[in-house]
Amino acid sequence: MNESIFPAEVATDVNSRPQPPVAPRKPVEDRIHGDVRLDDYFWLREKENPEVIQHLEAENAYTKSVLQPTEAFQEQLYQEMLSRIQQTDLSVPYRLRGYLYFTKTEEGKQYPLHFRQRKDENAAEELLLDLNALAEGYSFLGLGVFQVSDDNRLLAYSTDTTGFRQYTLQIKDLQSEDTLPFRAERVTSAVWASDSRTLFYTVEDEVTKRSHRLYRHTLGETAADPLLFEEMDERFRIEIERTRSGAYLILLAASHTTSEVRFLPAGNAAGEFRLIVPREDAHEYYAEHHPRLDALEAGSSASNVFLIRTNSGGRTFRLVTAPVEDPQRANWQELVSNRPNVMLSAVEPFHSQLVMFEREGGLPFLRVIPLPARSKEPLAASYRIAFDEPAYSAAPGSNPEFDQTHFRYSYESFITPRSVFDFDFTTRQSTLRKQQPVLGGYALTAYASERLHALAADGTRVPISLVYRKDTPRDARAPLLLYGYGSYGISVPVNFSSNRLSLLNRGVIYAIAHVRGGGELGKPWHDAARLHNKRNTFTDFIACAEHLIAAGYTNNQKLIIEGGSAGGLLMGAVTNLLPDLFHAVISHVPFVDVLNTMLDPSLPLTVGEYEEWGNPHVPEDYFYMKSYCPYTNLERKAYPAILVKTGLNDSQVMYWEPTKYVAKLRWLKTDANALLFKINMGAGHGGASGRYDYLREIALDYAFLLREIGIHE
Question: Potential cystine with 485: which of 284, 356, 567, 699 (Cβ 3.0-4.6 Å)?
């Protein structure tokens, strides 16, 4: 085999067909638990090695060469998607301390502009941040912190210009429009104290990217910012936030399975944080605050309490109150009991109401609890905001003010564009504030959405959400794109995408497999496919694919699958298990080198993720991970057509994981199907940050997908 790396201009054979780059094999031996593994491509981790960059550029050149016949089609797809977007647009303003805050997008500009305006209709708009100006000279820009001080004068904001998700914190004086000299690097969260001159912020370790230190910055102080807290347990990360009431700062330390909360009055910036209750393994709890919860339980006289969402009474959580003066567990009083089939995912307190974000049967719900007006009155009956589509996404919106008469939420589905509603607590009616415009004559009635269930081998019912044009034939010949994730307890939303219309209008069915490992059915759904249950994620996905084929939605020659990050692990695992089941695969920033990454505790995320994947330094965990690790289990056999994408500056799945995976797969695969690798050399985990650049990335994905199923226009 030719061991050289092809130059970036791409080598060709005698028939002028582009030939893929071949990465040299440089075996590195690893021995652990009596097991010996050879990693031929370990050297591709050397980011500063010119040979590595040359190889990545050659991969990009090869992909460009192979897809060159689709360039006109890519442009057509890009223009289609662009034509559906209202490029100059406004967000729905939210109210905060006498101002309306909103964003604008302008035609031709990659990033939004952040504005505010006094509630007086004649007041001038104030430009707070122009992300386009901040992005000048950079190929990437990400906005992190965006916090306005209580006196409305100062804006604390953070930006990332590499895609590595390391943010620089700055402060802008909104009156003078000057940026203050203060800068803090690697900031993960920040909040103001109520004095509007003290800023608390957390930072991450430079190497492991674990958020571990809390600092306090006081305007005008020239001494170094004091370190207030340092989290020493490498499983835990910290975050600083402020309660919705504005009364307290909350310092959260959390691993994947355990959490701990400290608090400080927002008006006592120089004070010390107090602990609510100490951490206990497998106990997660999260705190909010309410200043006037009276007599929620018989005999209670609490009027200044923490609202604590805790899994102490069941994996799907319950809600308790604790007096601020003495919040130890002995003083907790149950407000909402644990319901095994209903996941209590979040709580947003308002002055006269509580809003709970719940998940049941794989769907999200918003439940409202009216609060008593006087002491010793019982709680009124709670109720849910009604949604009537078979599959949808609903979530809290921007609700920064504690004392307001409405609750803002977002709603969308596969066929209903993203919509912003205000729900009036008094009338119990929702008012549509804005629906995402879809230009070009979008007709909702031309499409249909369904909710199905596949049966896993152990009898578990796995939800599937899907959408298609109503005129798409149901004769088992339609192409179908099946998306999956299934990790960290994250739920894949059933969202609207105007871009997706370019697939649906060409007869492609789109589906999501809500496999175990995700959060669609609450924490037990996550538990059922993590650690030594991880293989359930893969077999669930296969069961969903087989169900869609058996039900006549598609066939294995028209079935394309897609996933990213941990969903890329899913793509690699199922492709290794049943390569003949899928016609093509699109894998974004895939976590495919599981064993090598989890064996390296110096890498970002590794130690904290022992609770998700296991610790391979433990023999039982090592051999279980080895049984499914996509990179380790590649074999000499035929694979589907595959497009792999990554970012050179990815901080969550290092670029070398997909790079090594593609190199090894090229060496082993016996088929003539396409294996393409696209590297964004100036971005990270989420791909391009500019909206136009991102559309071009989607156009490339769609062109690859459609070409593979024989659609060229």
Answer: 567
Tell me the H-state helices in 371-440.
none
pLDDT computed for residue 593 by the predictor: 98
Q: Spelled out in words, what is the top-level CATH class assigned to the domain 156-283? A: mainly beta
Q: How many C-alpha atoms does 44 have within 13 Å on its Cβ side?
A: 26
Residue 706: its H or E element: helix 691-708
Task: Tell how strand 480-484 and strand 559-564 pair up.
Answer: parallel
At 181 the pLDDT is: 95
Helix axes 535-550, 619-628, angle to 10 degrees: 30
Catalytic residue among 650, 651, 689, 701: 650
Domain ranges of the chain: 28-82+440-708, 90-137, 156-283
Query: What pTM, to 2 d.p., does this model score?
Result: 0.95
Q: Which of these, 596, 662, 615, lies nearest to 634 by C-alpha position?
A: 662
Say how far apart CA 199 and CA 147 lie, in whole Å: 10
CA distance 69 to 64: 9
Instruction: Give the whole-angstrom CA distance, residue 161 versus residue 411.
Output: 31
The whole-angstrom separation of Cα 713 and Cα 707 is: 9
- The one catalytic residue in 65, 410, 498, 565 is 565
Backbone angles phi, psi at 141, to 5 degrees: -150, 125
Is there a catalytic annotation at residue 526? no
Q: Are 141 and 131 in contact (CB under 8 A)?
A: yes
CA end-to-end distance (rounded Å), the chain: 38
Q: Which residues of 669-705 are buried (b: 16+ CB within 10 A; e: fewer)?
A: beeebbbbbbbbebbbbbbbbbeebbbbbbbbbbbbb
Annotated catalytic residue 565: yes
Angle at 564 between CA 483 and CA 530, to 5 degrees: 85
Phi, psi (deg, nearest 5) at residue 120: -60, 120
Domains 28-82+440-708 and 156-283 share a fold: no
Tokens of 7: 């130059």
Pairing of strands 559-564, 584-588: parallel
Segments in 494-565 forming alpha helices (H): 501-504, 523-527, 535-550
Summarised one tens digit per residue, pLDDT across range 99-146 is 999 999 999 999 999 999 998 768 899 999 999 999 999 999 999 999
Q: Which residues, given as ranges, of the chain have pLDDT below 50?
A: 1-9, 14, 295-302
Side by side, which strands form the sheet with 237-242? 237-242, 248-254, 259-265, 274-275
For residue 4, the model assigns a pLDDT of: 33
Residue 696 near residue 78 (C-beta atoms within 8 A): yes
Q: What is the pLDDT of residue 298?
A: 41
For residue 10, what pLDDT is reported? 52
pLDDT at position 80, please? 97
Q: How far is CA 268 from the centre of its chain?
A: 34
- Does residue 547 carry a catalytic annotation? no
163-216 pLDDT per residue, tens: 999 999 999 999 999 999 999 999 999 999 999 999 999 999 999 999 999 999
CATH of domain 28-82+440-708: 3.40.50.1820
Tokens 């084929």 belong to which residue?
A: 549
- Note the pLDDT of residue 374: 65
